[in-house]
Amino acid sequence: MLLSQFKKEDLKNLSVEEKTRLLFDTVYDDDGGKAPVGIVLGCSYVPYMEERINGAVELYKSGRIDKLMPTGSVIADLLPEKRITEAEYMAEEMIKLGVKKEDIILENNATTTIENMICSQLEINRYYGNGTTCDVFIVSSPLHLRRSKMIADLYMPKNIKKHLYPCPTDRHGKDNWMNFPESIDQVNDEITMMWVMVATGQADDIEF
After folding, report:
1. 22-199 falls under which CATH superfamily?
2. Predicted TM-score of the model (pTM)
3. Which of 31, 41, 109, 159 is least surrounded by Cβ atoms within 10 Å, i.e. has the fewest?
4. Distance CA 168, CA 40 (A)
């Protein structure tokens, strides 16, 4: 089956098996890959961000990345008493878990996944020098990674290898998303946004 064969309004009626294939079949850690930078995607809900923080720190401590780049701007309902960005919050937690402050590159401006990729590439250029390209890890919840990779392929230089690091999770993964109403909603949203990218020519069609 091809994603383009479906109407947008029919996507939510795909079976659990079809949605799982579509969203998770290409999402896996590439077994020992290394890169200078791990881009850690923020989100507006702190408990979900915690799994991304923990996954990023695990990757860092394994020696497979040199720098962590938490990315995300201020969200109105994120820790309103502190008014810090998603990136700053993640950085604080990473340091508590043993990441060296000098190994964190902040990206404080992105408000969407598209902006995560564009703004992170700008920060890579600023940190390493304009025109620099380097391989990256994209660190996020498993259900978010296939679309994130599609966006990275669209907006980041083609010669950059984008490794994926699906964070350990008890509610956003291949084997458990279907057990939680909010994860079901997120899966449906991710698939719909992927369909839009295919329908508008931003990404190649997807067979599943």
Report:
1. HUPs (3.40.50.620)
2. 0.93
3. 31
4. 14
